[in-house]
């Protein structure tokens, strides 16, 4: 188990990076605490797999260093770093049995057969693979194979960190939640540092204690799932997390009052200094918008049934505002007024939270 | 140790180029120089051998005849294989598995077994000594190969494409030609490449089925070796020229060589 | 994978193929079978002779010798070409600018007409004026492939290795390229040695292409005719007379229809049988 730190890290796939967009990972300093469950969340192409490969040692960063606890491992190859990685599709040694697959990393390190036997069986039991130990690995289903991949990482006692690169991609949907729960359970039992990379917010938010949202090579925000939900520090986070995402309304800010289309809107922690020359937006999640007697007048466009609640799409002028209305609650048919929950309404300047 | 792995392909490529270099070397020498001294490059450089081939009809007709039957065979093989491969890929019909297997066994037939019967068969139908005879004879091996390769590519195209087109009202042949064929263009390229290759290089049947009018370049070259002593320079030049179509074809499909293998049947 | 719908009309699509192949396969084979069980004394008169020709062929020294030579030839080239081809494919870079250059150069021998291959090696190996022949003799080796059976065999094998190893390289390389990087990455993380990577990842994943390579090389080497014919003519004497060369001598050379017919069928059957054995053995595991 280890604390992972990245210092002053930057990476480009090009020989001579020039512009900002040439950098796959832009300058960052990060730290993951020992034993934590972390997620790296972001859309395809944001640099999360690059970052993962830098941590595991499969990729050498253009600039900066990687530290495990107090050791600089930047120059170390993957097997010297003692990490485990589970890939997008299951990687198993087809010709070997499940037992031999799990024993492989230990045998390569010269562990005696006796010692590794108990260890292999222990991990197999943990992953519910003990019934299949003698079977050929090639014959298992996709989720079984992913468990073997995971098992090969867990079987080594001194694993510093386990990394997951979108591990549920090829798993059948009805088995995804089972594997997800298993991963969470494993973390709680073993307390190994885990980093889970994904573009699926459900996976990230349910697995991790600490989530880092990444976009375009930058860490946009790091925090607990609740923090990311309730107080997004960037419009990207607001938009990416939550379904539907955060509403963004073009705004102005004068004399300490934020306005949307002329209407004054109360925001949490309004900035003290005036904001000039910035693109201003008010951000509020649909969960924190409700119909009221007065407020911003809107036309109701459409209503979508979401089960326990309904997603109502309204518009004021050209701006769409979505809100959630509970199953049994009253819902105006043509037009109404919207009120925003002040504590969860934020002002953003050029995408970043302004306060 | 890892540093030197590049030596392996490098040495092998040298090995591959050696006989070709020697052939070229000989082709630019006069017969006197060849028989007289041993030299690594022509001291007495001459284009005479090539000139002879380009001006003497018995020689250049050999190339034209060969190209004729190869192109004919490629066109025929690919054209008939396309609907057949589609049938194997999309439909189940009586005897389909056995038929497919039977087609493949023809690839395992020794050409030597067919030399005599082909000679008699094609003579009997009056096609002896024509390019079309060789083109048809080569179909024995090339059609099964074409069907095999094309079926592989076609299976990779989802049936939904066909169904959508039919629902949209396309008659079968219009769909096949305007929609399906462009989709498997890479596969057709790979297939045409292999058909061309096998037909261009095969010579037992080509020689057996021809004598004068449709004589392929191979037969002309053998003549050189046996009559009037050894005109080695001429032989070498003739040989060198046969490498050119192959080199051109490889150049054009160079991007597909490794990719096409992986995508298709392999 | 597409699911197939039953449709007997598909026979129309397959018909042209069936006609063309059957014309070339069925009629000649029927002729061959015909000849193999009859005797002719010329003038188009045939007399049924039953299994006489088959017996004669199976018992003939000449056939045994040709078969022995053929098995020896095929055995040696398989043992050389398959491992060599795989080794070269393994040594080639997985990506980069050199890959196409290498593949294109290596593919050249495959597209040279077979008689030119024979002629090339003939010219190369001529004892006085060929590069190979002259150099070997200059180094003190007494080499003359036109007179010495051993030299003829060595040259024949070298020629075939030169000609066909590239096919194995291309197939093996295609198989290797299909292995996703993640496997190599996982092996690195697991601490696997280069040998382990070869044994547990590369070799199993290449199994399918290797099967095809072995089958193709087996079949084609067993049926080889033109290259050895042009190189040595089957000689010196008949030391390099392989099965096809022998058959053509009997069939087209002497028009001995009966023996030729019988030998043809036996030959074809041997190829089919051995191919089937190879195929079954190599794909045995896939049935699991």
Please tell me about this protein's structure:
The complex is a heterotrimer of chains A (355), B (266) and C (288). Chain A is α+β, with helices and mostly antiparallel strands and 355 residues long. Chain A has two domains: 4-234, P-loop containing nucleotide triphosphate hydrolases (Rossmann fold), CATH 3.40.50; 243-353, OB fold (Dihydrolipoamide Acetyltransferase, E2P) (Beta Barrel), CATH 2.40.50. Chain A contains nine helices and 22 strands. A six-stranded mixed β-sheet of chain A has the order 6-7-8-3-9-10, with helices on both faces. A five-stranded antiparallel β-sheet of chain A has the order 16-20-17-18-19, with no helix packed on it. Chain A has a four-stranded antiparallel β-sheet with strand order 2-1-4-5, with helices on one face. Chain B has 266 residues and is mainly alpha-helical. Chain B has helices at 7-27, 31-36, 48-55, 57-90, 96-105, 111-124, 131-155, 159-167, 172-183, 185-201, 204-208, 217-226, 232-253, 256-263, and one strand spanning 91-92. Chain C has helices at residues 10-36, 52-59, 61-91, 98-107, 114-125, 131-138, 149-177, 181-189, 194-205, 207-222, 226-232, 243-253, 257-282, and strands at 5-6, 38-40, 46-48. In chain C, helix 3 (61-91) runs antiparallel to helix 10, helix 10 packs antiparallel against helix 13 and helix 12 (243-253) runs antiparallel to helix 13. The longest helix of chain C is centred in the first third of the chain and has 31 residues, at 61-91. Chain C is globular. Chain C starts with a strand and ends in a 6-residue tail after the last helix. Chains A and C meet through strand 6, helix 3 and helix 5 of A and helix 8 and helix 9 of C. Strand 1 (91-92) of chain B pairs parallel with strand 1 (5-6) of chain C, so a sheet runs across the interface.
